[in-house]
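F.,

This is the one I mentioned.
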């Protein structure tokens, strides 16, 4: 039988997954936040402390900033997007997921993409790009950010890399280009 999105999500949460080391430090498996019926999917690298506590993606300071930036272009992230991560469990000290962890967990993300069938995927930061599009090995965020592209694995979907919202908290100068990149969603 083919699972619908809610069944997939419930099964993943109930699985108490222990496929990689990240399960040892988690409070919750963080599957997503938002609307699985949305045509716009956002992908980050992994849950942070707030996400792990609440069991929802992008609910900390970076997520709040992201929500504000999307509201500026008339999108409500809870209604108009589905937000997921490369890994579903919080890496220690909020470090980027290791290659093995990402490789183990990305099957779940790809299943989410297959179920949601988004028209556009926004990759939040270099880590999401690196793991979802492994063919892109050498790139600079300033060159990649804000440009639509396609990959053979998701032929029906446009992809775009954006600066990770957590990065915007460290470098507010990137908020202006981020706003410009988000406006391209209306083109």
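My design for it:
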């Amino acid at each position: 039988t083919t699972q619908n999105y809610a069944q997939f999500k419930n099964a993943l949460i109930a699985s108490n997954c222990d496929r990689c080391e990240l399960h040892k430090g988690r409070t919750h498996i963080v599957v997503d936040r938002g609307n699985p019926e949305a045509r716009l999917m956002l992908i980050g690298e992994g849950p942070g402390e707030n996400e792990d506590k609440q069991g929802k993606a992008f609910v900390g300071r970076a997520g709040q900033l992201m929500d504000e930036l999307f509201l500026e272009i008339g999108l409500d992230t809870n209604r108009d997007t589905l937000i997921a991560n490369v890994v579903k469990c919080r890496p220690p000290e909020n470090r980027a997921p290791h290659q093995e962890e990402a490789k183990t967990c990305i099957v779940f993300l790809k299943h989410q993409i297959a179920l949601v069938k988004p028209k556009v995927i926004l990759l939040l930061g270099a880590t999401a790009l690196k793991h979802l599009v492994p063919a892109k090995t050498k790139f600079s965020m300033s060159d990649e950010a804000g440009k639509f592209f396609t990959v053979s694995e998701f032929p029906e979907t446009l992809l775009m890399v954006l600066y990770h919202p957590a990065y915007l908290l460290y470098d507010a100068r990137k908020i202006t280009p981020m706003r410009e990149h988000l406006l391209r969603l209306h083109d």
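The first strand starts at residue 33 and ends at 34.

Talk soon.
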